[in-house]
Every structure is written in C-alpha cells, then in structure tokens.
Amino acid sequence: METTIGPGRGRATPLPPDERRAAILLAVRPVILARGAAVTSRELAEAAGVAEGTLFRVFTDKVTLVREAVLAAVDPADAIPEIAAIDRTLPLRDKLLLLMTQAQAHVSESMRWMSLLHEVGRLEPAGPTGEQREAAMRQWGRRQQAGTAAVTVAVSELLDLDAHQLRLPLADVIELFNTVLLGATIRTVDASRRGLDTGPPAPEQLVDLILHGVLTPISSDRSS
C-alpha cells in the first residue's frame, strides 16, 4: 500500500492513521478549491500522491473526502502560525493592521470553502451518509470552538505587551476586534448578494475605528 503523501511517490515510512488522514486533507485542498464539487477521485488521488484505492481505505467515498477537506480548511487554528509570525515588538497599530489583513484574507478564503460545502451537500445521498454528515458537522463545531479559543490565546500573546495602553481589558479589545471584523464581513456579503462589488473595508479604516472610534479628537484649547 502506498503511504507517501504529496507530489513525490514511492515507498516511505507509513504514517500513523491520524497523520495520514490530515496529510491527505491538506494535500487535496488546492485541487478542490480549483475544481469544486466536480473534482474527480483520480484528481484527488494524484494531489495526495497516493493510489485511489489507498485514498478510499482512508475515506469512505469522494464526497466524504471533499467535505472533510473543506471542514478542515476553515479551522480557525490554521491562522495561528501567521499570527505567531508577527513581530511582538511592533507598534500596536502595526500589529493590529497585520492581524486585520490576515483575518480578512482568512475570512474571504473561508467563504469560498463554505460555498464549496454547499455544493458538496447537494451531492450527498440520504440515509447513513446523511447521519455521518451530521456527526461530522458536530465534530466540526467542536473543532471550530477549540480553534477559536486557540486563536484568542495567540492574539492575546501578541498584544500582551500593549495591554497597558488600552482603556479596556485585552479580552474585551479582542472581542471588539472580532465584532468589527464580523460586521465588515456581513456588510461585504450582503453587498455581494445585492450585486454590489464594494469589497471589504480597508484594514486601516477598521483598525483606526477600533483604536480611536469616530469622534474628532478635542484639542486642549477647545476643551478649556
């Protein structure tokens, strides 16, 4: 049985089942994103660097593989390496700009993946496969919750040096950041549904809203 995952084929040390499963799900992402629900089993096997028979000893069928790849792709924890790569010594605004830019890109990609999930859902038959899908969705919900918590920890570590500058507790600032990001995302989605290509707000605009609000600063002369 072939065990190599990725473009190179040949014999390799067999991966533990969980690692092999995760490696396949990661390897097939590009072809699924490019081909959508029309992707073939052969294309998936080629992307993973395994034989089709090997692929379906790990996953029940093509639809199950595609669905699980999509659910893995929208795991919030995927963002943690990018967050960890941000220089903690940068000024607060610069760090928030990098965070917002990363978050907007992640949300945009997640939206593409979720649209693929709807495509895949239309291909799934009723019966046991439907029950398996519901179980997978419950597992995905738990993964989302754990991933979101892990991202919050990573952001807290990034901004910890700046906590003394903040009027609100750091946890509240992170929640505010997420609220602004979510609001901007909903606005963009709503505009798209109405045929308006407005695009997302600029990261600078959102970060300045978080840091400074919308009021014009009052000078000391005017306040006296």
Report the total helices.
11
Name the shape in a single word.
elongated
User: Which residues form runs of ≥5 with pLDDT under 50?
Assistant: 7-12
Task: Report the helical percentage.
Answer: 55-70%
Strand content: under 5%
Tell me the number of structural domains: 2
Q: How many strand elements?
A: 0
Overall mean pLDDT stands at: 85
Name the structural class: mainly alpha
Biggest pleated-sheet summary: none
Helix-strand topology string: HHHHHHHHHHH
State the end-to-end distance: 81 Å
CA radius of gyration is 22 Å
Keywords: DNA-binding, Transcription, Transcription regulation
Protein name: AcrR family transcriptional regulator
DNA-binding region: 40-59
Pfam families: TetR_N (PF00440)
List keywords for this structure.
mainly alpha, elongated, 224 residues, transcription, transcription regulation, Homeodomain-like_sf, DNA-binding
